[in-house]
Amino acid sequence: MRLIGTSVALLGACLAAAGTAVAQDYVGGNFLLKATLDEPEAYCLDVFGFGTHANIDEPLSVHTCKNAGWRDATFTVNYPETGQIYAPAYDRCAELSQIERGGHLFLRPCSESPLQRFFYRDDQKIEVQSGPGPRWCIVVHPADGIATGGPSHVRREVMMLACDTLEPQFAQWLLPDGASSLGRDPEAGVTRADQGRDGSARGGRAPLNTLEGAAALYGTACLPCHGPTGQGYVELSAPKLSGQEDWYLSRQLWNFVGSRRGTHDGERWASQMRYHVSDFDNDALIAGVSAYISALPDDPAPVTIQGDIERGASLYAQGCAVCHGTDGMGIEALNAPRQVGMTDWYMVRQLEKFREGVRGDHPDDIYGAQMVVPSQALPDDQAVLDVVSYINTLVAPQ
Ligand code: HEC
Ligand code: HEC
Q: What is the CATH number of the domain that holds 75?
């Protein structure tokens, strides 16, 4: 099984909270149609066939629910990435055959395909991330279930139709593990189709360039990795953002959007970050979310790096203070960000990236390029730890 990295902490939290009975080596639970329809035992999303006869190349359907631990019908959501529906027994993700009426769901290797990105709406329908035009949802066939043998074994086809085509009972779902969310709201402005150049959203929501709109956007698109107060999560390799200046945050967002950061092999975390903002082609949107973040409460990040503080102090004075300030608060005129109270392990990793030429190497990354020489001037790897442990001793003015 491939439950590593990103979502383990989140999954663990969901499972603990839901307390669902699951067979030992499967994480996940049943994906249920909310209405029982003609099957009092309820319908669950299921792989065609059963056990060793399961045929993962057939489209997914719904079938009479069986006991917990039933691997053909065990799913988890938002894994490996937000919006994906994952089948741990097969290490595959649900993918639509096509974005049009009558498309079917298949299990395919997990990928970045938009056909694998779903959103659980407030009305409990599951919408597919699509461009302009009708909103498409996952529904079950309205005709009575087809008997598949045994006293109570019925199946229905699962397909895609415009969200309001059928009665809600054919389109409302309950997520596995008691999860309450799946994916991101396509109307919350994370897709190009849904946002105007001024950052205004469709559907009567607060415009994204207002603080309220930016807060909503942060809550759906950023909070899962950077935390409710922008404090960051080490398990997700996501740094603290709060306390950083908005001009710096915006520039980094543009760097990710423009593929000037996070494109190298092995940059697993940074490429996730890049993926998550790749649809933000909008100045107002980026400025709004950056302003929102820089106004979040700013507590110093925990200290995790040990080094020779005295050596670090002299390295800092010689090689860093000129741009980042003797107080480490950053100098906007020199484009150098604040370092005081920011995430130490993240600064170490960025210094390593600058030293190795995986950040600041893109021809258009003129600001990142300025860090290459000073980082490479640090005499050895220990010096990286030393200088960051000195930065840890600095305190932000109140
Ligand atoms: C999947 C998790 C994830 C999501 C979602 C995510 N980020 Fe990130 N973010 C990261 C990681 C990991 C990094 C560090 C990348 C690196 O190591 O280069 C990062 C880095 C950043 C940085 C650079 C910080 C710096 O000091 O250089 C900014 C700014 C940022 N994220 C903002 C956002 C915003 C705004 C959103 C929402 C629109 C968001 N992130 C969504 C994981 C995520
Ligand atoms: C010539 C000016 C200059 C010098 C000298 C300099 N920096 Fe920087 N530093 C910058 C600029 C500009 C950036 C922003 C890069 C960007 O926008 O991507 C930066 C970014 C960084 C970052 C990334 C922060 C983040 O949140 O992503 C770290 C860490 C850093 N510097 C540490 C240092 C250390 C430690 C030294 C001394 C060894 C140093 N810098 C010396 C200009 C400088």
A: 2.80.10.50
Residues 236, 184: one domain? no
| 160 Cα: distance to centroid of ligand 2 (angstroms) | 49
Tell which atom from ligand 2 comes closest to the C-alpha of 335. 12
- Find out whether the beta carbon of 350 lies less than 6 Å from any atom of ligand 2: yes
User: Which H, E and C letters describe the chain, residue by residue?
Assistant: CCCCHHHHHHHHHHHHHHCCCCCCCCCCECCEECCCCCCCCCEEEECCCCHHHCCCCCCCEEEECCCCCCHHHCEEECCCCCCCEEECCCCEEEEECCCCCCCCEEEECCCCCHHHCEEECCCCEEEECCCCCCCEEEEECCCCCEECCCCCCEEEEEEEEECCCCCHHHCEEECHHHCCCCCCCHHHCCCHHHECCCCCECCCCCCCCCHHHHHHHHHHHCHHHHCCCCCCEHHHCECCCCCCCHHHHHHHHHHHHCCCCCCCCCCHHHHHHHHHHCCCCCHHHHHHHHHHHHCCCCCCCCCCCCCCHHHHHHHHHHHCHHHHCCCCCCEHHHCECCCCCCCHHHHHHHHHHHHHCCCCCCCCCHHHHHHHHHHHCCCCHHHHHHHHHHHCCCCCCC
Residue numbers of the domain that contains 325: 215-391
With 0.70 as the threshold, say if the pTM is over it: no
Q: What is the pLDDT of residue 69?
A: 54
Domain count, the chain: 2
Domain assignment present for 333: yes
Tell the residue nearest (CA) to atom 41 of ligand 1: 222
Q: Are residues 107 and 231 in the same domain?
A: no
Measuring from atom 2 of ligand 1, which residue has the nearest CA?
Answer: 225
Highest mean pLDDT: which range of 191-195, 198-202, 231-235 = 231-235
